[in-house]
Each structure stands twice: as structure tokens, then as C-alpha cells.
Amino acid sequence: MATISSEFVARLEKIRVQFLFDHPFLSVLALSLPSRLRQNQREAMETDGRAVYIDEARCVSYGDQQLKYLYAHILLHIILKHPFRMRNRDAKVWNRSSYIVINLPMSDFERIGERPKEEVMLEKFRDKSVEEVYQILYQESTEAQEQPDEENQNQQKQDLIQEEGE
């Protein structure tokens, strides 16, 4: 396992201290869970609900405020038990759904950091549970697979969702 740099450790510690003053519930969770360095497959920070897995190489491209947002984001996945609620659902659609559901209320938080541009924010899903968002996105992806690409309206919707997130 790679060694995490002291500069990066200092950045994470600074965020934990900020959580202590800005969002004590996040601070308690951040200090209670193990954080492990690893090369993540998709994201800068990932979780299995029991630990936070941090990919330092992916995190270096983020400023401190974006890193704070990502840390809070991953902690909310744990608070909302997203890893445990996935069950046998399609992982790609579930992850996208849970990211959408978390980013919406985070937009209402103060002193939570800055949302990175690649984080999807779709107002049409506000006040929906991750299961409801999953059903909608899964249905769209299933219908999209059943139609030829040039006639595929749902794929065009997915493309619009993707563009809106960017």
C-alpha cells in the first residue's frame, strides 16, 4: 500500500477541523471511520459504508474547497446507508442515483465547500429518494437498450442529463 503524503494528510486534517465547527455531525463521522489510501476505480473518494477510501492521485487535482465537498459527499453516502441499500441493483445506475440524491441537499448546506463541475446536479430529482431516482434512471437505461441508437429518445435524455451535469 502506498504511503500518503504529509501534505495531503494536513489537507484532510484541516477539513476535519472545519467540519468540527461547520458541521459537527460530519466531524464525528469523519473521526470515527477509518480512512484508507488506495487507488480507486472511479472516484477520488469511495466508501463501502465502513471506511472511506481515498485516492490521493485523484484528489490532487481538487482545491481545498472541492476536496471538502467531496469528503462531505462521501460521508453522506455513509449516513444515508447507500452502500447497504444497493442490494442487487445495477451498481452503475445506483451510484449515479445516489450521487444525484446527495448533491441536491448539499447545495443547500452552508460552508460545505465547492461542488466540482463533474458532480451531477439535477433539480428534477429534488425530494426523491435514491430508490425513486434509481427506478427512473434504470427504466430509462433499459428502454434505451431496447431501441436502435438513431431512434433512441431515452439515450438522448441520458445525454442531456450528462450534459446538464457537466
What does this structure look like?
The chain is mainly alpha-helical. The protein has one domain. About 60% of the residues lie in helices and about 5% in strands. Strands 1-3-2 form a three-stranded mixed sheet. Helix 1 runs antiparallel to helix 2, helix 6 crosses helix 7 and helix 7 crosses helix 8. The mean pLDDT is about 85.
> How much is the radius of gyration in Å?
17 Å
Biggest sheet character: 3 strands, mixed
- The number of domains is 1
Gross morphology is globular
Please mark out the parts with pLDDT under 50 across 5 or more consecutive residues, or reply none.
none
Q: What structural class do you assign from the helix and strand content?
A: mainly alpha
Question: pLDDT average, as an integer?
Answer: 87
How do the helices and strands follow one another from N- to C-terminus? Answer: HHEEEHHHHHH
Count up the helices: 8
Strand fraction equals: 5-15%
The total beta strand count reads 3
Provide the spatial order of strands within the biggest beta sheet. 1-3-2
Helix content: 55-70%
Give a quick rundown of the structure.
This protein is mostly helical.
List the main descriptive attributes of the protein structure presented here:
single chain, 166 residues, mainly alpha, 3-stranded mixed sheet, globular
